[in-house]
Write a structure and sequence with these properties.
Elements (H helix, E strand, L loop, with lengths): L2 H20 L4 E4 L2 E3 L7 E2 L1 E5 L2 E6 L1 H6 L6 E4 L4 E4 L1 E6 L1 H10 L1 E2 L8 H13 L7 E5 L3 H4 L8 H7 L5 E5 L3 E4 L1 H6 L14 E4 L5 E6 L11 H17 L3 E9 L3 H9 L7 E7 L25 E9 L34 H14 L2 E5 L3 H17 L6 E4 L8 H11 L3 E5 L4 H12 L1 H4 L5 H6 L5 E2 L13 H10 L1 E2 L2 E2 L8 H7 L2 H6 L17 E4 L16 E6 L2 E5 L2
Parallel strand pairs: 1-6, 2-7, 8-15, 9-10, 10-11, 15-16, 16-17, 17-18, 18-19, 19-20, 20-21
Antiparallel strand pairs: 1-4, 2-3, 4-5, 7-24, 11-12, 12-14, 13-14, 22-23, 24-25, 25-26
Helix pairs in contact: 3-8, 4-6, 10-11, 11-12
Amino acid sequence: MNKYIVLWMVVAGACASPFAFAAQPDVVFFNGQVATFDAAGTTVEAVAAKDGRILKVGKSAEMKALAGPSTRLVDLGGKTVVPGLIDGHCHPMETMMMKQTWVDCRYPETASVKQALEHIAAWAQKTPKGEWIFAACVSASENKFQEKRLPNKAELDVAAPNNPIIVANGTHMGLANTAALTALGIKKGTTKLPHGGSVILDKDGEPTGVLTDAQADAPTTPTVAQLERYYLKDIQEFWNRHGFTSFMAITPAAALPVLQKIAAAKVQPTIRYTTSIWSSANGKDMPDDLASFSMPKTADPGWYRFGAIKVWIDGENDCRTGLMYGPYMGHFETDPPGGRGTLVTPQPEADRFAGIASRNGVISMMHCSGDEAIDIGLTAYEHQIQSGAQGKIMRIEHFGMFQLTDKQLRRAKAITAKGFNISVQPTWLLDLVKADYENMGPERTRTGFMFRSMIDAGIEPAAGTDVTGIYLDNVNPFLGIYAAVTRNSDQGIFMPEQAVSVTEALKMWTIWAARAMGEGDLKGSIEPGKFADMTVLSDDVFTMPKPGLKDVKTLKTIVGGNVVYELK
């Protein structure tokens, strides 16, 4: 052999050695049944990761052969592994706030108005005079409490005579006492609040105490110390133990500076924050320039990212404030005038909001609950597309959860290729179908939760918990998977023809959620180059009996190649 060829081989081998060493993984996860959710639907045994990203996937022996002296080896015990779960729509700050600092009046533990008032009175007795009190009731409590109604202003005056109080019926309706109305500057004849909230009046023009979509008008923002604890510890622990590695964190602008400060300090969390910022319910306070919402330049975008802005087009059907073309069934004293729900953001303002998002290169998120509100959202995005100025991602939140017409589905399908995406909440099947029947009647109720139709139309629904602190158990994604697959609901089996497969349900919580956040190239599947985020499950969800899906547990949550949660 030519001596120069021999010399070249020796030099090349010496040069290759450091490269091989550099490519050695930090960690190898082996002996698993790893559903990658790549385009081919591949299942592998093992995953090698380096610097927080997936290096290679394949058989256990092959991945272990890549290991160097410092590589960690993690035995998955033959368990099913899926891409790290993604919560495509949630409110983490509000969840911790309600969980830790609000009076708990949640059904079914609190079964009646009488019990709720007892809880509030006990809380008021230990609260300094003049200090605000907030209480949490689940959505549609007017349908669930024994009395089939909500607490009223007079009862709250008695329960908390020395404190302003707002009782939340879900997150889109509040019940205020006299002291709270006074503190908010609400007088006879007041119908609108500065940031999009509405005031319900009696026949004489006096405020009844019912407020709708007043979340930006009430002084609910926690202290800086509380926010720091939420962001540094409580939030990530709460979501990690349910298998979540990433989420779309819908965040009030007033709370954002604390998260920005933490991001600037390069504090690495155990969950990936993509923030959606809201300024007021109707978006009127949303600035044309969103630069102030950006994460600091020193922040790692793999952990902290400003990705979206949000606005509310209407209220929500479960508290009878979702904007519908037809009236709700029956009548409650808390109903807005006209009995068709509440318009929070009219069409011109919705168009403006979509334009702001597009010009700033972020996602537009529009909350649309009732059928009329859905049309407003779709029209806003169609206007953007027609003008040639549409954003890369234009979302409707809670799309078709309560109502969806065939025409609306066709309109959505027509703009999906232009960047239209949707967010849905499968777990609500277990909470709100019975209330839907009572509020809207069977015909309109049967137009909701049509996940099969959405997928068949080529729309990839991103699942979200929408956890706010109202239904705390809804943070469990396996309840949503169970509901979407079995179609079980609080009213029995509901429209079984709209069932989805286990794989489709998991895609709603992984790759489809990632794409709806504009991050499909970084997360949502287990492929080389993506973040090494995975969730290890207690059961083989693909073969187990479907009724057992609701009992599945997270054994390990892996973020960036590190185990951040392990079931003990």
